[in-house]
Amino acid sequence: MNFKVYADTDEEFQQWVASEKRTTEQPPLLSPLAADGKKYFFQATCPQCHTIQGTEAEATIGPDLTHFANRKEIGAGVIENTSENLALWLKNPQALKPGCKMPDFKLSDTNLKQLVAYLETLK
């Protein structure tokens, strides 16, 4: 498996560590689509695998999504983190990264759009 390595100064690394320890900065008011995505995220099985610091989602099976919108890649570097790629990942993660732990949940187009909108608020 290939990984990208980023070389930072010690100061830049310490700033990154500090930023990762904070909870996500939720906008004061989510768009209706993102609000529906947040509701769906917490009603579906997402919190059984993922963490979002500062919420009831505290699982450690899948990646911590606290600052998901700030990431450059999805799936440990498999694809660039864009709205379109995120939708592809959520729709069928196995097609992009065979053998990953995340199954295909057969999301409806509506739920897919909602989840993408919500995950893009997690900065």
Kindly describe this structure.
The protein is built from five helices and two strands; from the N terminus they run H-H-E-E-H-H-H. The chain has helices spanning 10-21, 32-43, 83-91, 93-96, 109-119, and strands at 73-74, 79-80. The radius of gyration is 15 Å and the shape is globular. It has 123 residues and is mainly α. The chain has a single domain, classed as Immunoglobulin-like. Helix 3 (83-91) packs across helix 5. Strands 1-2 form a two-stranded antiparallel sheet. 39% of the residues lie in helices and 3% in strands. The model has no long low-confidence stretch (mean pLDDT 90).
Name some characteristics of this structure.
123 residues; mainly alpha; Immunoglobulin-like; two-stranded antiparallel ribbon
Structural domain count: 1
Strand ordering within the main sheet:
1-2
Could you estimate the helical fraction of the residues in percent? 25-40%
Radius of gyration: 15 Å
- C-alpha geometry: globular
CATH class: Mainly Beta
Proportion of strand residues = under 5%
β-strand number: 2
Kindly state the mean pLDDT as a whole number?
Answer: 90
Distance N to C terminus: 27 Å
Q: Would you list the SSEs in sequence order as H and E?
A: HHEEHHH
Low-confidence stretches: none
What topology does this entry show?
Blueprint: H1 10-21, H2 32-43, E1 73-74, E2 79-80, H3 83-91, H4 93-96, H5 109-119
Antiparallel strand pairs: 1-2
Helix pairs in contact: 2-5, 3-5
Short description:
By secondary structure, this protein is mainly alpha-helical.
